[in-house]
Design a protein that fits this description.
There is one protein chain. Helix content is 36%, strand content 16%. The chain is of the alpha/beta class and 343 residues long. It has a single domain, classed as Histone deacetylase domain (Arginase, Chain A), CATH 3.40.800. α9 packs parallel to α10 and α10 runs parallel beside α11. The radius of gyration is 19 Å and the shape is globular.
């Protein structure tokens, strides 16, 4: 298996998040990369730099320029925090239907593209996110008829066309999917097995007939991020399938959901697969209550690999450092053995 990564993904290392008004320790830390690389047996290849056009295929120019430039502007303005911390967000509730103007002050602009207070921009954030998108782009261009793993960090599936949040800045899975389309695939399936719904990926492909998006995740109706979307009745034009699961549901419900999404992807006629590979549904992970076991992740990989498609696996969540690497390796082992027909 080929693994794609860049050392630049280590440059973003948030020391804290602002959650429900509290400064809490960051969980999406650079150490995640080391734990995964130590555990995953792959022929590691350096990520190439994604062209700007690959990014604008899924994100607005405004969001990209903001992420690239806002930290330098923040520092130049003399603000004391070591991260760009928004305090005002131009939501529809604020604008009331009026067009939003571009604020003159950087502390006003800080919230223009952010949609939560957890996902802060600091020194190295843009470089890491850009490198992660490059890993996904490189993997999609190398996938041929096999399996390629993109060690993307920070993750990406919560990033929308015009916004960032949920510890995500650029949508790596979406970059992989649009690159596969550009490389000649007529239809691509994105299957998301992160513990949380990939609202960004769903929104980017909501009106696309050539991309299927399916997600198995903890029910946002039970109080889990992203709260406002990820419900079963969100079907788009028939190319979107959400399978929300009750907390504490464990392997049986999880695997039934993965099987259901795989069946839908097969009916869709996908020619290639992008897996948003999060392992934060695991029993030990602090970020969800789904209680999926290591055996559950092995079978998840087998179900996905059973589609028999050229596959790009893009790293998303997984925050329990002691089990993170082994769980990623186990899922990839399931993917690779199933694709070869080996048990």
């Amino acid at each position: 298996m080929i693994g794609i990564w860049s050392p630049a993904t280590l440059r973003h290392d948030p020391s804290a998040e602002i959650w429900i008004g509290l400064r809490t320790p960051g969980t999406e830390v650079a150490e995640r990369v080391h734990r995964i690389r130590d555990a995953v047996a792959a022929d590691w290849v350096p990520a190439e730099e994604a062209p700007w056009s690959a990014l604008t295929s899924v994100h607005s120019e405004g969001l990209l320029r903001h992420l690239r430039d806002v930290y330098a502007e923040w520092v130049a303005a003399g603000y004391p925090q070591d991260r760009v911390v928004p305090y005002v967000f131009p939501t529809e509730a604020m604008l009331g239907g009026l067009p939003g103007r571009l604020p003159a002050a950087v502390h006003g602009r800080a919230g223009r593209y952010a949609y939560d207070t957890m996902t802060l921009v600091g020194l190295g954030t843009w470089e890491a996110a850009f490198a992660a998108a490059g890993a996904a782009w490189t993997a999609a261009r190398r996938v041929s008829d096999g399996l390629v793993y993109a060690l993307c960090r920070p993750p990406g599936h919560h990033a929308t066309r015009d916004g960032y949040g949920g510890s995500c800045y650029l949508n790596n899975a979406a970059v992989a999917a649009t690159t596969l389309l550009a490389e000649g695939c007529a239809k691509v399936a994105v299957i998301d097995v992160d513990a949380h719904h990939g609202n960004g990926t769903q929104s980017i492909f909501w009106e696309r007939a050539d991309v299927f998006y399916g997600s198995v995740h903890v029910d946002p109706g039970a109080g889990w991020f992203p709260h406002y979307m990820g419900f079963a009745d969100e079907t788009g034009g028939g190319t979107n399938l959400n399978v929300p699961l009750a907390p504490e549901s464990g392997d049986p419900a999880w695997l039934a959901g993965v099987a259901r999404v795989c069946e839908a992807a097969a009916r869709f006629g996908a020619e290639a697969l992008v897996v948003s590979l999060g392992v934060d549904a695991a029993a030990d992970d602090p970020e969800s209550p789904l209680r999926v076991t290591e055996d559950g992740y092995l079978e998840t990989g087998r179900l996905l690999g059973g589609l028999g498609l050229p596959t790009v696996a893009v790293q998303e969540g997984g925050y329990h450092l002691e089990t993170l690497g082994p769980l990623v390796a186990t899922t990839l082992r399931g993917l690779s053995t199933s694709k070869r027909g080996v048990e």
